[in-house]
Specification:
Elements lengths: L4 H15 L6 H8 L3 H13 L3 E4 L5 E4 L8 H9 L28 H18 L3 H12 L3 H9 L3
Antiparallel strand pairs: 1-2
Length: 158
């Protein structure tokens, strides 16, 4: 499966928003991650359309999570940014060509389609078990117990 870079960016932003006491402007999130502000804005808009973040206008405006990070899964973010279509789409090529299987003999999906559907379902089920809160906890586990606090401090700076 190939996900767009927007998924990575959106997940990082969601993790950052778990520690932000106030809404965070898109420009500040882009600066923190040293990424394109315009491309990041598109990912944040996708999160907003999916109801995962909300945006507020004005001097104190920016983005905030709409619910507790324990209630937002990695799958929620993936589907918000890249959509929910399966990675594999069967085009029934077994029904083509000189030795085509007649449509009436194709009473169920072929083994390839079943394998791909099973893999897709397992992948989605795995992503559904990981919350944004889990990812945030991992930041402190991976980079030290003050990593998120450092991000929070940086966000409140100039």
């Amino acid at each position: 499966m190939k996900l767009t870079g927007g998924v990575e960016w959106a997940l990082h932003c969601c993790v950052v928003l778990t520690t932000a006491p106030d809404p965070v402007p898109a420009a500040r999130l882009a600066e923190l991650h040293d990424v394109s502000a315009s491309y990041l804005a598109k990912q944040l808009q996708a999160l907003s359309r999916a109801g995962l973040v909300s945006s507020s206008q004005g001097n104190a405006g920016g983005y905030s999570l709409t619910r507790a990070p324990e209630l937002i899964t990695v799958l929620d973010v993936v589907e918000a940014v890249d959509g929910s279509k399966p990675a594999f789409v069967c085009t029934e090529i077994r029904q083509r060509g000189p030795l085509a299987t007649p449509p009436e003999a194709c009473t169920r999906p072929c083994a390839i389609s079943r394998a791909m559907a099973g893999a897709d379902a397992a992948w989605r089920a795995a992503l559904e078990t990981i919350s944004v809160a889990d990812l945030a906890r991992s930041v402190d586990e991976d980079y030290g117990p003050t990593a998120l606090a450092g991000i929070r401090t940086w966000l409140s700076g100039p």
